[in-house]
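SEQUENCE, STRUCTURE TOKENS:
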Amino acid sequence: LFQYTRELIAQAPGTVELTVSVGQALEFAMVLILAFGVVFEMPLVMSALTRIGIVQARTWRRFARHAFVGFLVLGGFLTPDTSGVTQVLVAMPMTGLYLGGCALAYWTERRASARARPAAT
């Protein structure tokens, strides 16, 4: 974005002013770090909720489409520009982590049911 602003300033001096503070840059970096920190915990939370019995693994798969749309919306809020490419690039890791969480939840559910079967017999 700075490069585009510099080009605008070169083409029409005095019409565009570049004002960025250190505080704004730090705030942007901290929001992204916090958001991705929370997102990277998603597979563990999904697995824990499945292990406790609150959410079944098939429920995660059933609502995957809703989650993908939510990731695109969240990517739109987190990205500083209006291009759809950046939005999709932010949503892709979240989608991959959600799918990994689905697989981990399925594995956790299978493992818990396998432990319960021998104890019942």
